[in-house]
Design goal:
heterodimer; A: mainly alpha; Histone, subunit A; 4% strand; B: 475 residues; alpha/beta; 16 helices; globular
């Protein structure tokens, strides 16, 4: 396992953008220290020799629970839309998606 | 009505027409009115709805119908389980105003069995935490000592049972979130086998680890509720299709000849009085006829590390859905990206953001295999070590938590120290195995100690039998 660089505030700011979280500068600094702590603790796991060990994504031996494709009622459209912050013509309304390139 | 009445007794009395469901519910509502202001177990008490449900049960009983195995028994529901047209907050601002358009399967099953939904209990935001200090609505107090946390994340449910607000409660357990608060509040807490209880309507945190489970004042009550909620649900694709085991009628079978392994690595994590109670519990099982021996499970040393890579990774993916578009909070921005960023920054609390950050990092390009992939392979090592231990033992015994309930603020400045308080409970989630906590004496501080019983997948019957034997030995 190659030595990895410690996480920096630049990394944290980048990850915050990936996660769509507008963090303050103070939060970026705080999370840099805290994530570094947790990742250092996790280094014992990162350093283990796991060659040939398959990963476990899920503890059950079940695969693909399928059912017959029979039409059935789904959630009531009006009831679902009533929970939305903004609605127009029976659809979720959102702010502008396409615009000038940043 | 006496607060010591058990759920089993209530259901028998209501089914037998000796007591009305309304009297039962009024009794619990009165206890809540007396003490809830100092405990804060609930985000919402459903007083009118509970009384209406009780009246409906009483009418059915008067018409000669059997209202069901939970007849008239009030049940408190962790507020990350969906209740139709009743706010479901996950103790987060981001679900502000949201009312689910459907009931969780477990909520439906409780109502169909004659149980009464009493209210929604407080939790660490999105079930991420070990103390309820991460609730957006303020912490729950431990009913046994208001200066101590009730544990978490199902702290509201554990406190509700401990305070006598409800005889039974539902929780969810991703890394110990039912068992650790049960231990801290001196009640019984059960995480069933992964897939044994439907998760349809449980708000997802880490899908390969999350399990709906329950809390009760005693082992028989816990078994009663598990029998009602367990079993296949076509609405949950991870639900086990096999018929679930009967539990209540098996509790008194004892532990003669049962092989009990005391897990050395987890006892070593505990402070001296918790470790002392654990040894007493092991000795009591030996006196009851079990074959008790020590066992070493070396891969457990990697449990917390693997968990705090896997759980945040899954959390970062699951919580991507909170974007201010379809429900809950929205902070309007100039475009969709700024709306997402502002809504999530405002809507999530510090611990949820921390875990989203950690998980996003662990899944990001260049780190995926070193962190998430490696943690999944270590998860396999832990499962294999458990399987090896279960060749020699039927159940495993450990402390539920390394200490008794800690004080408010003791671990909030250092997230890693909070994470380490889950060291004994995390392994069963990684393996998908059932595990439960049973109160067993108290520490030097007078606060309850919990003993954890772990069993292999689908091993609920034996796990409950051992729990019943421990409870009986303790008087």
């Amino acid at each position: 396992m190659p030595e990895r660089d410690r996480i920096t505030s630049t990394d944290v700011a980048h990850v915050a953008r990936l996660a769509c979280l507008d963090l303050t500068d103070e939060e970026v600094e705080e999370y840099t220290v805290q994530l570094r702590d947790v990742l250092e603790y996790a280094d014992v796991v990162a350093a283990l020799d796991t060659a040939g060990i398959p990963p476990t994504a899920h503890p059950l031996p079940l695969v693909n629970a399928l059912r017959e494709d029979e039409p059935r009622p789904s959630l009531d459209r009006d009831e679902v839309l009533a929970m939305a912050p903004e609605v127009e013509n029976g659809r979720f309304r959102v702010p502008r998606i396409l615009g000038e390139a940043p | 009505m006496s607060p010591t009445t058990t759920a089993t007794e209530i259901a028998a009395a209501v089914r037998g027409g000796e007591q009305s469901a309304r009297e039962v519910v009024e009794g619990y509502l009165s206890t809540i009115a007396d003490r809830e202001h100092e405990v804060h177990a609930f985000n919402l008490v459903l007083e009118e709805e509970a009384l209406a449900a009780a009246d409906a049960i009483d009418r059915r009983a008067a018409d000669g119908e059997d209202p069901g195995p939970l007849a008239g028994v009030p049940v408190a529901i962790k507020d990350n389980l969906c209740t139709r047209e009743v706010p479901t907050t996950c103790s987060s601002r981001i679900l502000d105003g949201w009312k689910p358009p459907y009931d969780a399967t477990v909520v439906e099953r409780i109502a169909a069995a004659g149980g009464v939904i009493l209210g929604k209990t407080n939790l660490d935001e999105f079930a991420m935490g070990s103390s309820t200090e991460n609730s957006a609505f303020g912490p729950t107090k431990n009913p046994l000592d208001a200066s101590r946390v009730p544990g978490g994340s199902s702290g509201g449910s554990a406190a509700a049972v401990a305070a006598g607000f409800a005889p039974l409660a539902l929780g969810s357990d991703t890394g110990g979130s039912i068992r650790q608060p049960a231990a801290f509040c001196g009640v019984v807490g059960v995480k069933p086998t992964y897939g044994m209880v439907s998760r349809y309507g449980l708000v997802a945190f880490a899908s390969s680890l999350d399990q709906v489970g329950l809390l009760g004042a005693n082992v028989a009550d816990a078994a009663l509720l598990q029998e009602v909620i367990q079993g296949h649900d076509p609405m949950d694709s991870t639900s086990i299709p096999d018929s679930p085991p009967g539990l209540c009628e098996r509790l008194a079978e004892g532990v003669e000849g049962v092989r009990v392994g005391v897990v050395r690595e987890l006892v070593e994590e505990a402070n001296s009085d918790v470790a002392g109670r654990l040894r007493e519990a092991a000795a009591a099982l030996g006196d009851a006829g079990a074959k008790v021996d020590e066992v070493s499970i070396r891969a457990l040393a990697y449990g917390v590390s693997a968990y705090y890579l896997i759980a945040p990774a899954e959390c970062s993916s699951n919580l991507a859905r909170y974007d201010g578009v379809r429900y809950g909070l929205r902070l309007p921005g100039a475009d969709i990206t700024s709306t997402y960023g502002a809504t999530r920054a405002q809507g999530f609390g510090p611990e949820v953001k921390r875990r989203i950050m950690l998980g996003t990092y662990a899944l990001s390009a260049g780190y995926y295999d070193a962190y998430y992939g490696q943690a999944q392979r270590v998860r396999t090592l832990i499962i294999r070590d458990f399987e090896a231990a279960y060749e020699d033992f039927d159940v495993l015994l450990s402390p539920t938590a390394p200490s008794t309930a800690f004080r408010f603020g003791a671990k909030t400045e250092d997230p890693l120290s909070m994470y380490l308080s889950d060291v004994c409970t995390i392994p069963s989630n990684l393996a998908g195995d059932p595990a439960m906590s049973v109160p067993y004496g108290s520490g030097d501080d007078g606060l309850p100690v919990g003993v954890q019983i772990m069993a292999p997948a689908l091993g609920e019957i034996l796990m409950y039998r051992v729990a019943a034997a421990l409870e009986a030995s303790h008087g």
